[in-house]
Amino acid sequence: MGSFKLGKMTLSSLFKQPETILYPTVAKKAPAGLKGHIENDIGVCILCGICEKTCPAGALRVDKKENYWAIDRFRCVQCAACTRACPKACLAMRPSYMKPSASMSEDVFFKPAPSEDELAAKEARKAAKLEAAMKAKAARQEMQEG
Ligand code: SF4
Ligand code: SF4
After folding, report:
1. Which domain covers residue 62, as residue numbers?
2. pTM
């Protein structure tokens, strides 16, 4: 490359926007087609563990007893298999960049405890189901006897 051409390039670069940004201070724009990262709407999640069994990278951990869903983002290969397997459709790929991390750790999300209203609604649903089952059983017995 001639010294004239090199000098021209050096000069023009003085007036151009830099190619790099001060990430993460400056937010990086997500390019089209970016797969992004997995997010879980933990309020909707029922901690069934299907996503954990589906994940080919072993990136997910679900503990119903301890009430949490966890993801190791360093293992996740962004295949989206878990989003397709989830029966509650609470997993989604968000096309944005995560904040950088200085340590390899899991992101743990605890499911919030149900409110009084939710507990009451659950009990009411259970009672209604039981009542319907009893009625159906009584109707069957009546048919058999009569
Ligand atoms: S499959 Fe869906 S509902 Fe089940 S634990 Fe995973 S995120 Fe939660
Ligand atoms: S996107 Fe793929 S690798 Fe990542 S957590 Fe879901 S199933 Fe596992």
Report:
1. 33-113
2. 0.73
Ligand 1 and 71: CB distance under 6 A = no
In this prediction, residues 75-95 reach a mean pLDDT of 96
| pLDDT tens digits, one per residue of 26-55 | 888 888 889 999 999 999 999 999 999 999
Q: How many domains does the chain have?
A: 2
As beta bridge partners, residue 94 has 37
> 142 and 80 in one domain?
no
CATH number at residue 102: 3.30.70.3270
Give the ligand 2 atom nearest the CA of 71. 5
Q: Is 59 in the pocket of ligand 2 (CB under 6 A)?
A: yes
Task: Give the position, in ligand 1's atom list, of the atom nearest the Cα of 91.
Answer: 7
| Residue 91 exposed, middle or buried by CB count within 10 Å (0-12, 13-18, 19+) | buried
